[in-house]
Amino acid sequence: MPMMSVARPAGNEFAWPVRVYFEDTDAGGVVYYANYLKFMERARTEWLREHGFEQDHLRETSGVLFVVRSVNLELRRPARFNDALSVTCKPTALGRASLDMAQTVSRGATELAVANVRLACVDAERFVPVAIPPSVRAVIESDLGDEL
């Protein structure tokens, strides 16, 4: 099997490769719906990492975490065992303490799952919303470019 690698689609969309393992599937032999959310979480974590931010480091240095506030997930087609998938994430909106991401799980050109995810920046101890740190905001704003 060919090695999967990180791809950078056009614009400010980030893609992360995911292979479907047997443990990701349900009794019907397709990816269990909740696992699409796990795949998307991995892509968002890798998006942050590619931009120079480790989540544990953000907690230690800035005292913040990004948590999922809401998800709108549409399942379009099934993924199956051993499929090579691409999971994208693209920031679409930035608030004082929130970040919206568009995410897609695809097999080749076929979209399997599409989601809009709203993240909240929260104080790591109190879990209340706080402003996104300036260093993180600057990176997100540069990624959004003219779309703000």
Characterization of the model:
It is a single chain. This protein is of the alpha+beta class and 148 residues long. The protein has one domain: Thiol Ester Dehydrase, Chain A. The chain is built from three helices and five strands. It has helices at residues 33-50, 55-62, 134-144, and strands spanning 14-19, 64-75, 84-94, 98-107, 110-123. The chain has a five-stranded antiparallel beta sheet with strand order 1-3-4-5-2. The radius of gyration is 16 Å and the shape is elongated. Mean pLDDT is 91; it is low at 1-10.
Computed structural class: alpha+beta
Termini separation: 40 Å
How many structural domains in the coordinates? 1
CATH-assigned homologous superfamily: Hotdog Thioesterase
The total count of helices amounts to 3
Which topology does CATH recognise?
Thiol Ester Dehydrase, Chain A
Looking at the overall shape, the CATH architecture is Roll
Largest sheet: 5 strands, antiparallel
Q: Determine the fraction of residues in helical runs and give it as a percent range.
A: 25-40%
Q: How do the strands line up in the largest sheet?
A: 1-3-4-5-2
SSE topology string: EHHEEEEH
Which regions are unreliable across 5 or more consecutive residues at pLDDT < 50?
Answer: 1-10
Tell me, what's the shape?
elongated
CATH class: Alpha Beta
**Mean pLDDT level:** 91
Tally of strands: 5
Radius of gyration: 16 Å
Oligomer class: single chain
Which band does the percent of strand residues land in? 35-45%
